[in-house]
Task: structure prediction
Amino acid sequence: MMKLLISMLALAVASPVAAAPDGPPATGTLIAFADSFDKAQLAKDGAALTGMVADDLIFIDGSGKRLGKRDFIAGWTGAGDSFEPVVLVDRTVTMLGPNTAIVGAETALKGISGGKPFVSRFRFSDTFHRIKGQWQAVHIQVTRMP
Result:
């Protein structure tokens, strides 16, 4: 489970945040959504993640494997796993239009998996798309770091 968990790490954390209707760029609601997305992951909130992640999510894990929504959520909600709060470093926000953006950062995730402590350093890029006024993660890319 530890190997799967580490390979599936992506941060892009409680319940979905309502966004403004489609229209002008909404970086404020985007950042609030990205923060809520990160908190949902760390809190292992599968219900929140289900609404925050598009059904056709493309998730590229730290090993380069292409996965989907089910795998992404399972990686964050495994029994016996727990996560410490994270600090995002070098956060970037790239607006690709009024309803699409990439939010990325570097972080070190610490926690317990399978009864053993772990630390994983990685950089991630979460692509969010605002559909019918709601932001959703549509593409997640994770790169492990030494």
In short: Confidence is low (pLDDT under 50) at residues 1-24. The longest helix spans residues 27-42.
